[in-house]
Design brief:
There is one protein chain. This protein is 70% helix and 12% strand. It is an alpha+beta fold. The protein contains five helices and three strands. A hairpin with a 2-residue loop joins strand 2 and strand 3. A three-stranded antiparallel beta sheet has the order 1-3-2. It has two domains: 73 residues, Arc Repressor Mutant, subunit A (Orthogonal Bundle); 39 residues.
Length: 115
């Protein structure tokens, strides 16, 4: 799968509010599918499993079988890739702007002290 396809899958997965809520729960701790179903009583087990599969295909969830249970772990690396591509460059620019503003304010304060 190309990088573009991977990012498309992540955006598609995160476009759904239930899947975002699932990721929010998984960032706190790994959960079994049964525990996930208990957290989302408004949808049935099959639908929970379908949402988990979409998250897994996007690389956001890593399932690990332990005995008869399936633990779901959040993998934040795809989100980090989005951050690096879409947010990081803008955040760096904003930080640089704040640094320039700080220097200008400090210079103005110093000049005002000597008046």
């Amino acid at each position: 799968m190309s990088n573009r396809d991977t990012l498309d899958a992540v955006f598609r997965a995160l476009a759904n509010p239930i899947r975002r809520a699932m990721c929010d729960q998984l960032k706190l701790r790994p959960l079994t599918t049964k525990q996930m179903c208990a957290l989302f009583p408004q949808i049935d087990r099959t639908t929970v499993m379908l949402h988990l599969r979409v998250l897994e295909e996007a690389g956001l969830v890593v399932p690990v079988k332990k005995g008869r249970e399936r633990f779901n772990y959040l993998d934040a690396m795809p989100i980090q890739a989005i951050h690096e591509r879409w947010i990081g460059p803008y955040a760096a620019s904003a930080a640089q702007g704040l640094s320039v503003l700080k220097a200008q304010l400090e210079a103005a304060e110093t000049a005002h002290q000597f008046e």
